[in-house]
Amino acid sequence: MAHAEEEMSIPTVDLADLVDADRGTRERAAKTIVEGFGRYGLIYVANHGVDFELRDRLFDRFVALTERSADAKEALNRGDLWFQRGWTPPNTERAVVAGGQPDFKECFFAAPIPTDPACAIEHPQVYAENVWPDDLEGFEEDYVRLGRQLHEAGLSLLSGVALALSLPSRTFERKLDGGAHVFRLLRYLPVNEAQLAEGVVWGEEHTDFNVLTLLPGGRFHDPDGAPCERPDAGSGLYLRTRGGQKVRGVAPPGCIVAQVGQQLEILTGGELLATPHVITAPRTPGYTRVSGAHFLHLHAHEMVFPLERFRTPATLEAYRPPVLAGTYAIKTLVDIGLAPPEAIDGLGYRHYGRLADARASEEA
Ligand SMILES: [Fe+2]
């Protein structure tokens, strides 16, 4: 019963403990965060400040958006922004390692926190203005409000990480300030018998490339579209621990999930671990699932490299060379199929053709 034991021991952290008057309580909570992030790459979070009624209302509005005509949704398809804003059509994003099928989901992306305007000229796709659907009452307001609640919970957890690792308390908050934090809504699509036979999954196994991801929970819908319980034991979010075991990522009632992304793993030299996760589809056709994920990112000018105290021969070998977070994002968005491969050309000099042309005209 190794699975059940692992599932049982993923820790829950109460955010109120991180601001408790008693220093010992604060330190214990901080230590629990780092233990959970170190061993499993995730923790459950209580007293997180995320309003579940707001979440459910936003899910309802998002489902209404997904039920709009193909033309209406296509008007929000911002492939020119590498899908970092607006609606993402199905079969767009692709996991790097698992690599097979593109994810069977449609999504919406928006930034709930103001981003650094100076970055918009440097990274026009990742730091783009939000785009919103017309005539979807309350969608933008609820979206931004829920995204901000998740963001605040994430910053609290990162202050706990800093405390447990004996770093200045605002170490991570400073590095994240003004970053292109993005809150995403997702709808995993109904699968048919043929896809089930092929073993289709909703979202292939991958690690997130940002610092920290906050998951407010999700909701299944039956083939008639009514919210329902999990249709079978195998469907939903699964995570892989440091030991390689897959465990189901289901938060205790009232809690949310926080998981480590690649950038936090790299900053801590692997002390904390980016969590591989997969979203499996039910074994019965016709079910869908809506969920959300808020991604906290480093500011584009921050370096993705182990912090000084985590630099050892082994971590340097594993994580060099240092890369600007803005550059790191471009590379990853190409890897997962959201940005075009040519975006990589922008990471170095791309005007060699000028010399080639000059030499050709000289010879002519
Ligand atoms: Fe993910």
Q: Could you explain the architecture of this structure?
A:
The structure is a single chain. This protein is an alpha+beta fold and 364 residues long. It has one domain (2-363): Jelly Rolls, CATH 2.60.120. It has eleven helices and 16 strands. It has helices spanning 2-9, 23-39, 52-66, 70-74, 139-164, 171-176, 193-198, 262-267, 313-319, 325-335, 352-363; strands at 12-14, 42-46, 86-88, 105-110, 182-188, 203-206, 212-215, 218-221, 227-228, 236-240, 246-248, 256-260, 277-280, 288-296, 303-304, 323-324. Helix 2 links the parallel strand 1 and strand 2. Bound molecules: fe (ii) ion (FE2). Fe (ii) ion (FE2) is lined by residues 206, 208, 277.
Name of the CATH homologous superfamily: B-lactam Antibiotic, Isopenicillin N Synthase, Chain
- The count of strands amounts to 16
Q: CATH top level? A: Mainly Beta
**SSE string, helix = H, strand = E?**
HEHEHHEEHHEHEEEEEEEHEEEHEHH
Gyration radius, to the nearest Å?
21 Å
User: Which kinds of small molecule does this entry bind, naming each only once?
Assistant: fe (ii) ion
Mean pLDDT: 92
Unreliable segments of 5+ consecutive residues: 1-6
For the termini, the CA-CA separation is 76 Å
Total domains: 1
Number of helices: 11
Strand content: 15-25%
Q: Indicate the CATH topology.
A: Jelly Rolls
Q: What's the CATH architecture?
A: Sandwich
Which structural category fits the helices and strands?
alpha+beta
Query: How helical, in percent, are the residues?
Result: 25-40%
